[in-house]
Amino acid sequence: MHKLVNYSQSGRGDTLPQQLWNNALDHGLEPAIREKHLGIWQEVNWSGYLDHVRRFTLGLVELGLKRGDTVAIQAENCQEWLYSDLGVQCAGGIVTTVYPTSATEEVRHILVASRARIVIAGDQEHLDKVLELYAAGMQIDKIIVFDPRGAGSHLGGLVMSYKDVEALGEKRHQKERSLFESLVFSVKPEDVYDIMFTSGTSGLPKGAMCSQRGPVEGARSLQAVVKGTRQDSWLSYLPLSHAFERIMTIALHLSCGYVVNFADSIDTVQMDVIEIQPTIFGAVPRILEKVKTGVDIRMGKSTWMKKMLYQWALDIGVARVVKQRKDMNSFELAGANVPVGWNDVQLVSTQWTFFQRLIFVLVHFIVLRHLRKHMGLLHARYVLCGAAPMSAELFEYYMALGIPIVNAFGMTELHNIPCASLPGNDVRGTVGHVLPGWEAMKTPEGELLLRGPIGFSGYRSKEDELAEIMDADDWLHTGDLCELYKNGYVAIIGRKKDVLITSGGKNISPELIENKIKASPYISEAMVIGDRRHYLTLLIELDADAVGDLLQRQGISYTTLRDMATNSFVLKLIEIEIEGVNNELARVETIKKFAIIPRDLSHDDGEMTPTRKVKRAEMEKQFSDLIDGMYFEPTNQNSNVTRAT
Asked: Are residues 119 and 221 in the same domain?
């Protein structure tokens, strides 16, 4: 067997397959994966993990997979996804990922753009989409399904079960026992290992190709500050087709060896996180907002004693956060085109007084430990938030509860996390500082550029666009506007392409305003309108749970979301929430009118990406009547915010 040189940081091997090999070689009997089946947690050790990958790899080889061929996966998170993902890589293939909720036309786009001819489907729902495309004439050589229930007569020809592929691989292994090992060590750091599609907020998603070097070196960079261990645990529930989840469930998992837990289903995640109490947890802002809303609703229905204790603990936590709040006012801006790297980072540390520590221990013992246990975060060393901007208010709420929240920055093309606000070194309004191995730079126009362990090598089927995002000096142009400071901290202002230019010629970043608005517990989503307009307006999606609970407590009845959206009490509530934000904004940034969308936004209806990012062009198209209504009558620039009539 191969033995690789040891690195100064944990995670040995130059590729993900080699890291899996070495984990099995050195820690074979230790747990690697846990998955819940019928209410019982089943454990897979590293040796078993490698055995599954070996069988699936050789099964793919038997089916004719060649080096450089693309295999698409559309499934819910499960252990078979990891075996398949690593199996494709070991065989020299390229993985392309499809969101489990993607409709047939989205699947078509990804299969065509990635040139995938083998498709792995999770269950009958995903299988039916691929069969529909096959029936329409798309060239597909093989479909492999994890759960063959419902596949019926399709099995045996075009369609194979995952277990049948493993059985095929086992037969090949018996004939050629050294083949798998030679395949593992034939994978090179420069080989493309996956094609991950962008969110597609401003057009069709593009397939970003990434080499093995990117996630391997990027995970080592993250590991230098997170310092994950084999005693840590991670709950995998965000789609494995998303960069954030792939970093944590594959790259960092293989680097430091922590246990990956798979929930029974997406519907059981809340119960599973409480049961597992993971030490490292990840979420997008919307999930953390929902958790907070759930706490608020539960506390609203509690006894007066519990309400009093919760408010007492929260007030103490908020006061502590305010006293320890660090902002960017004293930071010195880095000049344009001046690189700032890890060696330039000057950590801004939180200083705790003895009294603050003492009172926090008391509050934690009486209230917060029970609350954190109920949230599933009692033992959390890190709660990483990524994939979308997180408001400072939400960030500080979790800090007030003593939860070690981390606001991380990344993007699909990076396949990595280059900046993070680590507990104790966080600064309000920033995404933290650059991490080891990374450099940041700001262009004269304010765009954030990053350089480091980036595996990005272009867009599949759009290879000519590489130069538009990656320059000759290996700087990746993020498309994000930023403020960059000499001490290594980074603040994201908004997306370059989303900047609004009012009819008066003022440039406004809507993201900053939207994040402030979404800090309200009653607002789920907000989108600022105002490009080439005289004033700014706002489309709002209500948080139905929070608003519904409030209406119930007020004794106000409603039947549908449309009723809720037109209720006078709700309209006044939202008006007050927006006015509060307007008071913090410059005059030109204030919202003059708003309209409430009378239904939930969804990926299926086209307004949202699978990770709940707003598709602005689609929103303007679908809700043009609401938008036009906000500009139908002129408004006084000095007036208070009003709802559209």
From this structure: yes
